Amino acid sequence: MSVEEDTANHGRLLGTVRGPQDVKRMTVEQLDILAAEIRDFLIAKVSRTGGHVGPNLGVVELTLAMHRVFDSPRDRLLFDTGHQAYVHKILTGRQDGFDKLRQRGGLSGYPSQAESEHDLVENSHASTALSYADGLAKAYALRGEQRSVVAVVGDGALTGGMCWEALNNIATAGNSLVIVVNDNGRSYSPTIGGLADHLSSLRLNPGYEKVLDTVKDALGNTPFVGKPMFEVLHAVKKGIKDAVAPQAMFEDLGIKYVGPVDGHDREAVESALRAAKNFGGPVIVHAVTRKGYGYRPAEEDEADCLHGPGGAFDVETGKLVAAPSVKWTHVFADELVAIADSRPDVVGITAAMAEPTGIAKLARKHPGRVYDVGIAEQHAVTSAAGLALGGLHPVVAVYATFLNRAFDQVLLDVAMHKLPVTFVLDRAGITGPDGPSHYGMWDMSVFGVVPGLRIAAPRDAATLREELREAVAVDDGPTIVRFPTGTVAADLPAVRRVGTVDVLAESARTDVLLVAIGSFGHLGTEVATRVAEQGFGVTVVDPRWVRPVPAELVELAAAHRLVVTVEDGVRVGGVGDALAQAMRDADVRVPLRDLGVPADWHPHGTRAQILADLGLTAQDIARDVTGWISRLDAQQDEPVGLPAGHGTAAQN
């Protein structure tokens, strides 16, 4: 029997859940059955759409316990990163949306305010939930509202500096706040059983602390005996707790600690959460879970427990259904290893993304030359600066969206010191199903203002290899090499090269210079073919290095009647803006139109769907270009000049 059939036949309890109140009414036996039904449901649905499987299978009992103890949405439940919120979505009435999970018009893969009042923040960048929670708890305290705030943070997210900044402030404020540490990466066994549960409850009893304070005050006023006696009693108290759980680090911050509890023992988790809720101050509940729990292919996946299959997968094996293809990431990984083989000064850095960014391949070949710093992009960049100061050439591999978090470090710690650090940005541009927080469309605008920083945008595998080698050869400043997600398009050889600029197509007529950035190279040549059918000549060029603007690109612009730029990044401050400024500085008065991504929060969907919505297709662009050059012909007797316009949605 398939998982889908099994879910249909045996998901009767799950079918009755339309909100958290339904879970609160269930018996212990029903809850155990429900947990199994939820796992079947998740595997069946996500196997058809792709998504985060492992993290959600690991938090089924934990999420059930949270919704039984707290009253969402009045009590606010925050999921750090948010990729483990599928069970939360199921329990808050969104089961029907899972057929189109991460697809156009379907459920987001992360919490979403637009979907439900039970979702507060759309947080898919890690290590942020504790800061949100700190602010919420302060707001409720100031407003006199009796509402619980619960933040679920993974042990991986705790490697991020924001978590520790937040913990410091949470401890100082002392507001009622429950922090659930979802620990699926530790090897020690959780402490379970009646004694551990009793001691956890005792530690969270407000009367316990009051008694301790009273004893402290009384003994403190007793000459010679008081202080030593209190220290002995306090040592006994700490000794008992240290024997039960490794809580010392958190309690030294001033935050009460409970655990570790077995995160798959719902009753134990409920008990800990109820005690934490009633304590009246900040509490950490440490739940030890197993990513992929209950699904053998996930549990046996040593790499990442089926953390996030990018597409449909076979339920029996956990393997992707689609045939493997050559990805941009694979090309980068292979070339980096080849470079490192001949360059002993080249080292790699990643922020908890070794496999997804491809840098794991370098780690396997040269294990002593790769540093995974955890979810700490700011530290990664400045640590790279230190490596460069020490005579090495670091290659920092991160998703494009995540480098935004370290702009100050790139600007002042690396660029200001003219240090040779190469940043490789995977998933640049519109990435699709993960939604707006993961779109790597800001980098060319944000980092384009950094003095001395060079940015390369390869169009295919051959230019990725070439431009990566050029980047690591730079020894007087930082470089960025950016590329999109997915399968690499076929190589697109240049007709010729002008300086550093590749000419991809040209005509006897010089009506339009079409500047196709990075992976839009093939798009540019298709547009040229369509426009040529209307009788106009188009020269298609790939600048290769988009920042600073190549002087040869400005010279090519001067030789044409119209310049059109097409880029997979935001228009504001993008390559089109930079070229327009360079043309003004050179007194080149050829009109320019820039096509790109509007600075907005674009919904999730496939890359092709979103680009079509934005008018970034060959048909749309060819129609626009034809219209613009036709109007120039109609105005040929008037002074040359074309004001900025709004030919497509991509220009607005």
Radius of gyration: 28 Å
- Largest sheet properties: 7 strands, mixed
The backbone outline, from C-alpha atoms, is globular
Instruction: State the share of residues found in helices, binned by percent.
Output: 40-55%
Uncertain runs are: 1-9, 186-196, 207-212, 239-246, 640-652
- Mean pLDDT equals 85
Looking across the biggest beta sheet, what order are the strands in?
7-6-8-9-11-10-16
Q: If you had to describe this structure to a student in words, what would you say it looks like?
A:
There is one protein chain. The protein is of the alpha/beta class and 652 residues long. The protein contains 28 helices and 18 strands. The chain has a seven-stranded mixed sheet with strand order 7-6-8-9-11-10-16, with helices on both faces. A six-stranded mixed sheet has the order 12-13-15-14-17-18, sandwiched between helices. Helix 24 (521-532) links the parallel strand 14 (512-516) and strand 15 (538-542). The longest helix is centred in the N-terminal third of the chain and has 22 residues, at 28-49. The two termini are 52 Å apart. The model is unreliable at 1-9, 186-196, 207-212, 239-246 and 640-652 (pLDDT under 50).
